[in-house]
Design goal:
alpha/beta; single chain; 9-stranded parallel β-sheet; TIM Barrel; 11 strands; globular
């Protein structure tokens, strides 16, 4: 299977040839591996490790006090993900699974005015917060439509916003339903119409939010951190028929060969049943993991992830 075929089949709850592979390598880790001579300085990390999926973004800069326009210039300056201008064509020709990455409205506005200020606004000036969320959604969706109109083809959308912390959601599900559910549904409907099922990223414990995300139309969730109450095996048992899972593999085990093998082998035993799972470490790969250790992990993923 090509990478595109592999991840597409997984997102359709079908069984691929093997588990798909995607990771977030921090710049610090990659630069360390370069200094140590393991990787060439001009290497593209996603190509070097043959990741199945590639995330591309656009400029989501936003002025809370002005009209924000979807302009062609936004394509050249990604706020998240890789540069479409620099890397899209090669990834497409390589039959990678192409993902359009964008911030959802809460994360977007929080990065503009500050999270604490936004939470206070949601409590005390609900109409003002709601209008900012609407403006954010309009900018993101209009720019996404512009990309599609220009002929860029993506296989999925990566909608991200951190709505949880270690012990639970940063606000109640009532607040989620009041401010964000309709907008998230609008995003899911728009991307689904364009053949782009939504993968939702949120750090933290968002278990309470999962049924609402499914109802909004989210197809997959990521990263399912191991060190909080987001056990990927439990979530698979509870929601595996409705939700594809990305992540859930504890990267703190990677420096120890036996621990890493046990982590991958034991979790894959449950996660691979019936498809619907893509490998990813549940946190970005930091520079405390050696290139040798990381290569061994990818080898284990391919070994135990084969159907």
């Amino acid at each position: 299977m090509t990478s595109r075929e592999r991840i597409k089949k997984t997102l359709e709850f079908k069984t691929p040839d093997r588990v798909g592979i995607l990771d977030d390598i921090t710049a610090g880790a990659f630069e360390k591996w370069e200094r140590e001579g393991g990787i060439a300085k001009d290497a593209v990390v996603q190509e070097y490790f043959d990741f199945d999926a590639r995330l591309f973004g656009f400029d989501q800069s936003f002025n809370a006090d002005a009209k924000n326009m979807a302009t062609p210039e936004r394509i050249e300056r990604p706020s998240t993900g890789e540069s479409i201008k620099a890397h899209y064509k090669k990834a497409e020709e390589g039959e990678r699974f192409l993902i359009l990455s964008c911030m959802e409205p809460f994360e977007h506005i929080a990065r503009v005015i500050g999270r604490e200020k936004l939470l206070m606004m949601m409590a005390e000036e609900a109409g003002k917060a709601a209008n900012l969320f609407l403006d954010s959604a309009e900018l993101t969706l209009c720019t996404s439509q512009m990309l599609i109109d220009k002929g860029y083809k993506f296989d999925s959308a990566w909608l991200w916003g951190d709505l949880g912390h270690k012990s639970g959601l940063i606000f109640s599900t009532d607040y989620y339903n009041a401010f964000l559910f309709d907008l998230h549904k609008e995003f899911c409907d728009f991307f689904e119409k364009n053949g782009m099922p939504v993968i939702y990223h949120s750090d933290g414990n968002v278990r309470e939010l999962i049924p609402h995300l499914i109802e909004a139309g989210v197809r997959a969730i990521q990263p399912l951190e191991s060190n909080i109450d987001m056990d990927v095996r439990e979530i698979k048992r509870e929601y595996g028929k409705d939700l594809v899972l990305f992540g859930g593999i504890d990267e703190t085990t990677f420096a120890k060969a036996k621990k890493a093998e046990k982590e991958i082998k034991s979790k894959f035993k449950y996660l691979m049943k019936g498809g619907g799972y893509v490998y990813q470490a549940d946190s970005p790969i930091l520079d405390d993991i050696s290139l040798e250790d990381y290569k061994r992990v990818i080898g284990l993923v391919k070994e135990y992830g084969a159907y």
